[in-house]
Amino acid sequence: MRTAAVLAAIAVALVLQTTLAGMSLGGSTRVNLVLVAVVYAALAFGPVTGMLAGTAGGLAQDAIAGGLVGIGGLSKTVVGFLVGVLGAQFIVSTPVPRFLMFVGASVAHEVCFQALSALTESRGFRMQYADAAIQALANGAVGIVAFLLVERGPRHAAAGQLATLVEPQKVLDTRL
Amino acid sequence: MEARNSQLAAGNWQRVPGVVLDIRRRTGVLLLVVVVGQLVLISAQVQSKSGMPVFQAVTFGAFARVQGGTSGALHGVRDFWGNYFWLRGVRGENETLRRQVAELEVRLQEQRALASRSTKLQELLKLQTTAALPTMAADVIAGNPNPGMLTIIIGRGSADGVLTNMAVVSPAGVVGRVVGAPAAHAARVQLLIDRNAAAGALTERTRAGGMIVGVDKDPPLSMDLVSNLADVKAGDTIIASGVDGIYPKGFTIGRVESSERGAGLYRAIAVRPSVDFSSLEEVLVVLVPPRSATPEEPAPSPAGAAGTVK
What we know:
The complex is a heterodimer of chains A (about 180) and B (about 300). By secondary structure, chain A is mostly helical. Chain A has helices at about 1-25, 35-45, 45-65, 70-90, 95-120, 130-150, 155-175. The termini of chain A are far apart. Helices cover about 30% and strands about 20% of the residues of chain B. Chain B has a six-stranded antiparallel beta barrel. Chain B has a six-stranded antiparallel beta barrel with strand order 6-7-8-11-10-9. Classes of the chains: A mainly alpha (about 180), B alpha+beta (about 300).
C-alpha cells in the first residue's frame, strides 16, 4: 500500500512537473516536484523508502528528460537516503524543520546533479546559485503545503468530526 | 500469528521470525547496490555512441502517451471553456487566423532569406527556383521534467514522419531540433537555448559566419567563432547559415544585443533569440531529412554541427 502510494505520488509529480514545464518554458520552472515527492517519502517513511523513491523518480525523470539516465536517479537516491536518515534522527514534525529539510535536500540534490553532470560531460563544475536558491525555497514551500494537505486532509477532518461526536457520549457515560 | 502481525504493524521487522529477506536490516547494502547500479548505468551511456538506450526509449514512449493524454485533457478543458464560455465564434475564427498568420510568417521568412541571397544566387545559379519547405504543425505536450535542461516534447513522432535531427521552427524563428529517437506519437526537441545546443549562423547584414550556442545566462545565446575583424553590431539580425545540415538557411535566430572585441581571436557576441521560449504552444517541424554539413558557406568549425550534445 505504501509502495503504491509513493509510486503514485511520484507519477503524479512527474506529470505535474512536465505539465508545468510545458506551460512555462525558458528555464523558468522553479520547482522540482519529483524531488519534493522523494523528500516527502523519505521524511514520512524513512531512509529505505526515500532511497527507493529517489531511484524510481530520478530514473523516470532522467529517461523522460533525454539526458544521461542515472544522474538524476543517483542524486535523488542519495538525497532520499540522507533525508530519511536525518528525518529519523531529528524531530521533523513541525513546519520549520521540514522546510529546512526540503531546502537542504534541494541544495544537496543540485550540487550532486551538477557535479555528476560536470563529471560525465568533462567540464568544470558550474552552478547557478541564485536559481538553485530559488528552487530550494520553492521546493520547501511546496513540501510544507504537501505535508499540510496530507495531515489536515480529509482523513484528519473525518477524525476530528468523529471526536466531536464521541466526546459528549464519553462525558455522558462517565456521569452515568 | 497475532503477535507476529502486531510486531509487523509496529514496524519491528527485525524481531519477527520468518521474515528472511528484510531490506530494512540491509539498508547499507541496498544503498550500495542502488548507487553502484546507477553508476554502471551512467558509465554505459557515456561510453555508448549509438542510439537511444532501450530503457529510455520505452519509458519515453510510455510517458509520451500519458503526457499526450494529460495534455489532451488539459486542452479539452481549455477548449471547452474557450468555446462555450468565451466568445465561441470569435475564438474559432481567431484560431484559424492565427494558424494562417503563422504559416504566412514562415513563408515571409523564407522569402526574406531568398531576397537577401538573390544577388549571389542570380550570379551563381542563374535564377534557381526553391521549393517551399514542407512543415508540419505540432503541439507542445510537455516541457522538461528536469529544471535547467531545456527540451520540450511535441505531439508528433515517427508515425508522422518525424526523424532525429529534424529542425523545429516557429513563425518567429528557429526553435531547436529533434533529439533522440522519436516515439510513435511524440518526439523530444532540444531548444536552441539549451547549453548543449549549437547551430551554424551568420549575420544578415554582413554575412559574417559563426556558431550560435546556448549559454546559461541572459541573453541565452552567444555567437562564437566570429573573427574580431568582422563587422557585427548590436541590432544585427542573426540567421541560420544552413551549414549544419539541420536548420534551414535564412531562418531567423535572433538579434545581436551586444558585440565586443574578445580577448583572443573572436568577438564576444550576445544574442537575444527571436523566439519567445516561455510561451511555446505550437511549433512547426521541418520535414526535410537532415543532411551532412555542406561547404556551401565557410563552416565555423567541425563542432558547428548543430546541437551537438556534449
